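Figure 2 data, in text form.
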Amino acid sequence: MINYRNVFLTLPLVLLAGCNSNLSLSSGNPATKAQVKPKADYEFSSAKLEKLYQERQEIQQEAMELTYDGVQYQKVQFAEDISEQQKVIRLVESHGQSVDLYLPDAGVDDCAIYSEGHFFDSFDCGEAQRSVGNDTTLIQTTTGDRKLPVKLEYNNEMVQYVTNLGSTILSKTKNGNKVTITTSFAFNAFYRDVLRDTGSVERINSTLGATTYFQLFDIVTQYPGSEMTLQFTNHIGGSADDDINMYTGLMIKDNNMKTIVTPTGSVFSGGTDLFAAGNPRILQRSNTEQAIELNKQVGVHSWGQGDKTAKDFPYTEESHRKQATYYQKVMGDTGIDFYIFTLDSAPSHGAHWMTKDDSDKYDFITRIE
């Protein structure tokens, strides 16, 4: 079923706890850490983007195949980590019909197939049911509730990276020459109906990834020359793939989009990267009676790897130069200073919610409503 290619092993998808998901490390000279600022000399190119695009599409199209109730679902549309041992994956068939696959690690729980308003059908996917080969794992059984045959085959390497594709839906509306793009979480219904989580206790965050780039590219291609606004209407927890997320931001910049964090939304980490690419950048407060940082709508932090933080690596590292170049491109003269501010704002596992003083210092939020 899956034609596994060795090129996948070169994918730069190292997941970090921070805003940069793809740190490229070299030994470096510690003395270079004394450099005051990283240089904005990284080259974003169509050739690099094309390589990223093809590699991410390969994950979408070859990571797994599900056959259920006689229908083959062959493409990953969205995916999200529920925990370190649980994933939810939206798979789509050739005519656009989709289902959500709940996929826990072996021994954690049963697997399940969910369709909003239609069914939740679980099946045993424990170790005894998993036929593990060198490249792929096969599960072939019968579901417990509807008694339907189910066959799931996934690539052992690629399945580790499906959640890097992201879980943020971009929806569009057009009015004359104006196109409004709004964000939402792909698995709202699954979380509500299956996990009994409505976000009333803790925020439910969606993730940015290659699917965000694919969707935005399709919208831009469909409506060339339109006046576009990107509205963050849900909570964006960050990016699982900063390499392509920066190209998403550059697309926002190149198409002169306005970015808005609405009262129901927030941006953090890689989400703030995309918000930064807009002009103007508007924050609509969820509570107009309190300071913006108390609303927790625009957040930043440092990135890190292992027990090291971003500033443990010299500014000559490509990861620093890439971020510095990105922020200079989208923000101009204050961009590099803003990037350094994010590194100092909070550790990689922490969060700093921007204040008005922070924003004013870097000319970040254009207007607060």
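Caption note: Residues 60-161 form a domain with the Lipocalin fold (CATH 2.40.128).
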